[in-house]
Design goal:
Blueprint lengths: L1 H7 L1 E2 L2 E2 L4 H8 L4 H7 L4 H8 L1 H12 L3 E8 L2 E8 L12 E2 L1 E2 L5 E2 L17 E2 L6 E4 L4 E4 L9 E8 L4 E8 L2 E7 L7 E3 L5 E11 L2 E8 L6 E7 L4 E6 L2 H4 L2 E5 L2 E7 L11 E9 L4 E8 L3 H6 L6 E5 L4 E5 L7 E6 L4 E8 L11 E8 L14
Parallel strand pairs: 5-26
Antiparallel strand pairs: 1-2, 3-4, 3-27, 4-6, 4-7, 8-9, 9-10, 11-12, 12-13, 13-14, 15-16, 16-17, 17-18, 19-20, 20-21, 21-22, 23-24, 24-25, 25-26
InterPro entries: F-box-assoc_dom_typ3, F-box-assoc_interact_dom, F-box-like_dom_sf, F-box_dom
Organism: Eutrema salsugineum (Saltwater cress)
Protein name: F-box domain-containing protein
Length: 383
């Protein structure tokens, strides 16, 4: 009789017969849109699905299943889409990957210039690159405007994540100093921090790996023009790597937890005529030691790529494939190059925009996107 009462006892939409921990475990495996709907069922469901125990578990599971992420530029706005990575891309597939359109289908950023596109996704969030930064979570649709940066000159903003304290930080670099803001701490005010070497960033080339934000920059001091800046997000400290122009002009990627710099030889992008891929990996930050790797593309590269537009390196998957994608196609093919097998695979991505599709000419592709269902508080008044 008591068991029957437990099964019949339902309040606020949650059955007493289902332990809270089991509810969290089950729901954490559902799509983001389902979680958003379940939060509206009742106050009890909302309390469970907004609790840190649930959001941390969901983020942990999402980190184990990274997605391809697409930003489509349309009339000064960016529309966000994502799709799971191909699990076993052993052969060219005629079935496209269908990209999901996120709830935050559009967020406006200030300029049409390429340097003013949002940052790379970092643990599910993006940040615009201007003096009045906008933080956006495509999974929840939440957009938060940060306090305006008061600076004497142009500013560049970068997003980093500290996996130890589980905090996002936004770094602002300008000619009159560097500032940092901790996102989600309530007040969210900008703090001046010391930068031993004044520098001018290259706006479109950054990546955050294991709590370190890397970006390319030009030194404003004589004798060391080309830099890769390493910013420790947790301790808010800078390290500067003096590099040659070849590394400086490369695309920064996550190479199995290390910083990698990839550049086609000899161009700045890949075409059907490309024959090799040049990779340098940062092995020792303190001693600034890099290892060099050169990979000859297989003969099938030319046929599989065909007469398509220029391809750009996107990054490297956890299973060891380099990923390439164009920037001027709405429904692009992505290309996966496996160094060990010496194979190239072509996969089509389907992004549905309806009648506006023909008006869009820019698609940015990123690896390792994760979905975060945590809701952040908007900043309070700050100086």
């Amino acid at each position: 009789m008591s068991a029957m009462k437990k099964q019949k006892g339902h309040k606020n939409g949650v059955g007493y017969s289902i332990p809270r921990d089991l509810v969290i475990e089950i729901v954490s495996r559902l799509p983001v849109k389902s979680i958003a709907r379940f939060r509206c069922v009742s106050k009890r469901w909302a309390s469970i699905l907004l609790h840190r125990d649930f959001t941390d578990l969901f983020l942990k599971m999402s980190l184990a299943r990274p997605r391809l992420f697409f930003m489509v530029k349309l009339k000064g706005k960016f529309l966000f889409f994502s799709t799971p990575l191909p699990l076993s891309p052993d052969q060219n597939s005629s079935s496209p990957l269908v990209a999901d359109r996120h709830m935050s289908f559009s967020c406006e950023f200030s300029s049409d210039g390429p340097g003013n596109s949002p940052s790379r996704p970092v643990c599910g969030w993006l940040c615009s690159k201007d003096e009045n930064p906008l933080m956006c979570n495509p999974s929840t649709g939440q957009c938060i405007t940060l306090p305006k940066v008061t600076s004497m000159g142009p500013v560049d903003t970068y997003l980093g994540y500290d996996p130890v304290d589980k905090l996002f930080k936004v770094l602002c670099v300008s000619t009159d100093g560097c500032r940092v803001l901790t996102f989600g701490d309530g007040e969210m005010s900008w703090r001046l921090i010391d930068s031993p070497i004044p520098h001018y960033p290259l706006r479109s080339n950054e990546i955050c790996i294991n709590g370190v934000l890397y970006y390319t920059a030009v030194s404003l001091e004589r004798g060391m023009p080309y830099l890769i800046v390493c910013f420790d997000v947790r301790f808010e400290k800078f390290t500067f790597l003096i590099v040659n122009d070849k590394i400086w002009n490369s695309t920064l990627i996550n190479f199995s937890g290390k910083l990698g710099a990839v550049r086609p030889d000899p161009l700045y992008f890949f075409t059907r005529s490309s024959t090799s891929l040049e990779l340098e990996v940062l092995e020792d930050v303190e001693n600034q030691k890099w290892s060099k790797h050169s990979h000859v593309l297989p003969p099938l590269w030319r046929d599989i790529v065909g007469d398509r537009t220029n391809l750009y390196i996107v990054g490297m998957t956890g299973t060891g494939e380099f990923v390439f994608a164009p920037r001027s196609q709405l429904n692009p093919y992505i290309f996966l190059y496996n160094v060990v097998r010496n194979t190239v695979v072509r996969v089509r991505v389907q992004i549905q925009l309806g009648v506006v599709a023909s008006k869009s000419r820019k698609t940015f592709t990123f690896l390792d996107h994760v979905q975060d269902v945590k809701l952040m508080e908007a900043p309070s008044k700050s100086s």
